[in-house]
Amino acid sequence: MPRSLPPSVTPDAIAQFRREIEILLGQKVDLRVNNNSSSVLQVRHPRGKSSILSVHHMFLRGGNEITRALAQYLRRPTPTANRTLRQYINAHTHELTPRAASPQKLRLRARGRTHDLHTLAEAINQQFFGGRVQIKVTWGRGTVRKGHRRHMIFGSYSHSTHLIRIHPALDDPSVPEWFVKFVLYHEMLHAVIDPEHDADGRRYVHTREFRNREREHPDYARAKVWEKAFMMGQVLPG
Question: At what angle do helices 177-192 and 208-215 cross, to 10 degrees?
Answer without folding.
Answer: 150
